[in-house]
Write a structure and sequence with these properties.
This protein has about 350 residues and is α/β, with parallel strands linked by helices. Helices cover about 45% and strands about 15% of the residues. The protein has a seven-stranded parallel beta sheet with strand order 8-7-6-9-10-11-12, with helices on both faces. The radius of gyration is 20 Å and the shape is globular.
Length: about 350
Amino acid sequence: MKETSVAGETITFPEATGEAGKEVARPDRHGTMDGTGWHRRVVLVTGSNSGFGRLTAETLARRGHTVFAEMRESAGRNAAAAEGLREVVEGEGSNLRVVDLDVTLDESVERAMAEMVGEAGGVDVVVNNAGIFFVGPLEAFTAEQARGQFDVNVFGAMRVNRVALPHMRERGGGLLVHIGSVLGRLALPFFGLYAASKFALEGLTEAYRRELRPFGIDAVIVEPGTYPTEMNSKRAEPADGARVAVYGEHLKAFVGRFVEAAVEAGGDPQVVADAVVGLIEAPAGERPLRTVVAPGGQDRGPVALNRAAEGAVRDLLDAMGLASDLEARLARMEAGSSGGRA
């Protein structure tokens, strides 16, 4: 068994056995299962060209899962990333395929999912990792830029989920993993637009979790802290330079210190990928809604908020007289569903 310390807790997941990518003994409704009882799942990972996405795709493939690693322009600007990903797992018997997919385009998502289902027979897990990072004063961003931030980080996840969910229901279960951020629980100055998109992802995940439970489909969110990934060097800035100039050195100093702190924290981004893998390989119905993965004590605030949020939701439902009604309705839906768990 492998253990990964995450936000003061320990996620434990089993080591894969047998050769990665070997033919399995028999099919299972929730992925495939070999003679050892090891469940191999079909997983789509968006934003696999770098950072958490790439590490997650590599780790899953090496552990025997069938991985479709998504990125935009895999034969164009991301050609080197695509080839590098293939080379990493080449010769290891891993079952990984790079898929060209743009989460901002409905037709691209539908086409990629059709190819994936045609090749693998279905989809068990979606890891919504694709994201962009806008940094600067909120007033300096145009409405078009704000839409762009949300189109990738929020609507992109919704597009992929919308196309994947019917296939998960058909297989009797599944899992949606959303890559959020500690900034989706605590907004910092000059990171407000990015934080707002991650706050939105938090709300979507909570709603997905309750809506999809009767179908045996889990929804979870991973909340990473600051790690030295390519995201920091690829951040986008506001279009209105005149508004940015109003903030002078204060903006530059704060953002610079933020980036320095991310490096100084000394976190290994592989820990985030390991946490995602741990959730995928955990028993269905036992996965936590939120998992904080953060170095240097960055987890304390988000963990406290998450605990408070769990109680707050129950209190609101109770205050509205909806708690027992919701549970009864979900139980009836579950009883009427033929689904299982992934």
